[in-house]
Fold:
Amino acid sequence: MRYVVIMAGGSGTRLWPLSRQGRPKQLLGLFEGKSLLRLAFERLDGLVPPDRILVCTGRAYADDVADQLPELSPVNILGEPEGRDSLNAVAWSAAVVADRDPDAVVAMVTADQVISPVDEFQRSLTLAFEVAEQRPSALVTLGVVPTSAHTGYGYLHRAELLTGFDGVYHVAEFKEKPERDVAQRYLDSGEYWWNAGMFVWRAATLLGQLDQLLPATAQTVREIVARPDRLDELFPTLQKISVDYAVMEPVSQGRTDAEVVSVGLAIDWRDVGGFVSLAELLSRDAGGNAVDGRTVSLDSRGCVVVNAVGPDHVVATLGLTDCLVVATPHATMVANLDDAERVRQLVDLVRTEAGPEFA
Amino acid sequence: MRYVVIMAGGSGTRLWPLSRQGRPKQLLGLFEGKSLLRLAFERLDGLVPPDRILVCTGRAYADDVADQLPELSPVNILGEPEGRDSLNAVAWSAAVVADRDPDAVVAMVTADQVISPVDEFQRSLTLAFEVAEQRPSALVTLGVVPTSAHTGYGYLHRAELLTGFDGVYHVAEFKEKPERDVAQRYLDSGEYWWNAGMFVWRAATLLGQLDQLLPATAQTVREIVARPDRLDELFPTLQKISVDYAVMEPVSQGRTDAEVVSVGLAIDWRDVGGFVSLAELLSRDAGGNAVDGRTVSLDSRGCVVVNAVGPDHVVATLGLTDCLVVATPHATMVANLDDAERVRQLVDLVRTEAGPEFA
Structure:
């Protein structure tokens, strides 16, 4: 049977003060009241039923996840006691699903993006499921057909076509976030896709790869499933490592008996990592400012203005150029847009100077 | 007997969103929780007792005035049904006080400034009372000894010394807000004082001048005192005019039987008209930003940051230069500091686009 695990971890300090320690970006109702998590869930509509959709998130967010996804049974919400990087979300999820259904095929999907069209996403995910079902040794990674020489994503270098499938490729190599000129070469060559960080595999296959590559992790996640009461004790002992480093790269290098293949996503892929990317999704006012919520602007240009306080509050700008203004009930941030990617530094300072309750 | 009337009208849109329609700047707790009104009241401590201090304000603010000045009897708060410029506040106050005490000498003082030292202010006000008591025909105006060629104040041109008093002058002429070069000439000459907009006179003398200059006004304010139930009907019929135009200028030109004399105030006089002048009264953070309330700044310079939301809110700035940030529960304003004097325009737009409840 097909399962989907939505990975919704992460603290999202880059969107502070919208996001904060108790409220990561995936849970923010940024899109006509819907969160990225909700959008990720609704993208699966008709593909797999809710009883086979799981969410892996921080335990602190489990209640909010349940509120936003009332269709889910509480047992389908996996709350990590602490963040231990992506491999352990993947490994624990695989062990949980394999325990329910030894033949399960699992799609690991992210909740960090706005994706369109959804039809195309579903078509690619279905193809990836078919590949994983028909080739038990395959770890299928989803690759986004790039539309720019983006330096904020990892890339994967496609090799030959996979026989018997249309548009599915072997993967020659994973590449980390490149410099601008390298990214341009990747784009021009037509041989590279953005690494979507989404995967499809048989749960048993993934666990078998872990047995070879990180046996301690494989053993621990199986133990957690057998003894849920030991979750708090065992989870923090898992080695902190990403799924790319731990599994995808070594397997793509032929170091195990499995293979990495990739299915392309020809979609509009908008990673909502920070305010600059969020701004691309907002509407524009008459002055060309990207705005959300109740805002008024006079002689202001090139600004991003987000009013998340509520309808009883107005955010007004006057003669402002290229600034980022974010107002929430607990904090207001005003930044030069050129510094928007330094928000984490500011959050650190806020934590120290104003107190952890504001960060 | 000596009386003081504190004039606390005005809507103060230049300090929006700190000030707003229901909350003018004189009532804002900007100075360690004290308002300009409270500071104006405390400046009178020891000079006249609270039962001879009156406040003339907009009726909408009367309750807030009573809250801030619990020492005052409610009958000492004169609530104007609508703003009719300074003459009518002055005329109505004079009629009220003359009705209580026909021999009353009244000081009309403003609540728009932070003044120091208070001793010097009291010394000058006492001298002005003495002049008015000893010269029944005198309208005494207070003049601030200028410390700069300020173009935001009116000036008064001193003439010869008044015989029998130390440092009291006849006034030759009132001058409107001058251009920069004219203001510099005024300053260099040593013959000009800033027009403080504060006056001391016998109530009967002021009313007598009005009988000559604006008999309708004189009659109407006497009628209001005789028939308080007709206040709402009569007050709006008063001619809208400033006390300078209506009385001080014509009297200084010799058009009546009275005389205008001036007592100097050698004080630090800070008019809190807008954010630029307010900023001079705020403390500085490590980056040299003028700040008030809970704020955090990273790589920000030359900004004015006011957090009036409260202690459960932080205002954080990042890479920001020469901006004005003001956060309140109902509105957040971010402006280029060069545009700070255009706040009224912004408020007009807010009223139209967001609604009058935000303005």
Chain A touches chain B at residues 17, 294, 296, 298-299, 307, 309, 312-321, 323, 325, 327, 329-336, 338-339, 342-343, 345-346, 349-350, 353-354, 358 (CB under 8 Å). Chain A is about 30% helix and 30% strand. Chain A has two domains: 2-271, 275-358. Residues 168 and 263 of chain A are 5 Å apart (CA to CA).
